[in-house]
Amino acid sequence: MAQPIIDLQGVNKWYGEFHVLRNINLTVARGERIVICGPSGSGKSTMIRCINRLEEHQKGHIIVDGTELTNDLKNIDAIRREVGMVFQHFNLFPHLTVLENLTLGPIWVLKQPKAEAEAAAMKYLERVRIPEQAKKYPGQLSGGQQQRVAIARALAGSPKLLLADEPTGNLDTQMARAVMQLLEDIHRDGATIVMVTHDPELAARAQRNVHVIDGQIVDVGEAPRLHMNVSRLSA
Questions:
Q1: What DSSP letter does each residue of 109-139 carry, written as one string?
Q2: Which of 139, 146, 145, 147 is nearest to 165 (CA)?
Q3: What is the pLDDT of residues 80-121, one digit of tens each?
Q4: Taking 60 as the threshold, does the pLDDT of residue 231 lie above it?
Q5: How far apart are CA 114 and CA 226, in angstroms?
Q6: Whole-model pTM?
Q7: Is the dihedral of CA 4, 6, 8, 9 positive or negative?
Q8: At 166, is the secondary structure helix, strand, or coil?
Q9: What is the rounded distance in angstroms from the CA atom of residue 60 to the CA atom of residue 26?
């Protein structure tokens, strides 16, 4: 059996006395597309933030692409080169143009020459169908356009794994479906995608749903089987 790209073993996390993740065990196969679903405050976003070490877990093991996440900064840096993150509120720098938002990481973290980084950024803006917005600032874009920029930025390092926190949460129905289609296209190209969502349609399109309540995984199954549960919990 191939080594999973994500392996969570007995993962626990606390915020002070609040036990936000409780003995999480989960494996994600390479090339899989899964959704983490459940009520607000159940620990879904914290779980994917731990996978990218944006949050630190206190107990258990998190192994991403064969490397365990510990306090070793070299390991953290290596993992972040392989993982793209799409945030719910976009997290774009308002004082930088779209193109500058996309090239900041490749230039300063990956040490790419500016011309190379800009050429790659334009390729990803074309991929998300907004190359004409390259010289605009985030405040000049619609919510759907900003989310496309956020996805392009996450793809700029050619990650093996894409983590998305409520990627359609702030979008109207038409824009949300366009982003869903974009994520499906990215998945078909070979990326592993792990999404947090309250959107029952997005959950139904995944290969598996991981159902979390009160910081615990209570069910894992094929998306159609859990579709009604997601709809009920999201009401």
A1: TS---HHHHHHHHHHHHHHTT-GGGTTS-GG
A2: 147
A3: 888 999 988 888 999 999 999 999 988 887 788 999 999 999
A4: no
A5: 46
A6: 0.85
A7: positive
A8: coil
A9: 12
Structure tokens at 191: 């990326």
Name residues whose C-beta falls within 8 Å of residue 162's C-beta, 6 or more positions apart in sequence.
83, 84, 85, 86, 154, 155, 183, 186, 191, 192, 193, 194
CB atoms within 10 A of CB 73: 9
Confidence of residue 136 (pLDDT cuts 50, 70, 90): very high
Q: Residue 215 carries which DSSP code?
A: T
Is 164:193 a contact under the CB 8 Å cutoff? yes
Please check whether residue 101 is in contact with residue 92, taking contact to mean a CB–CB distance below 8 angstroms: yes
- Going by their DSSP bridges, the two strands 161-165 and 192-196 should be labelled as parallel
Indicate the DSSP class of residue 186.
Answer: H
The Cβ of residue 232 has, within 10 Å, a number of other Cβ atoms equal to: 9
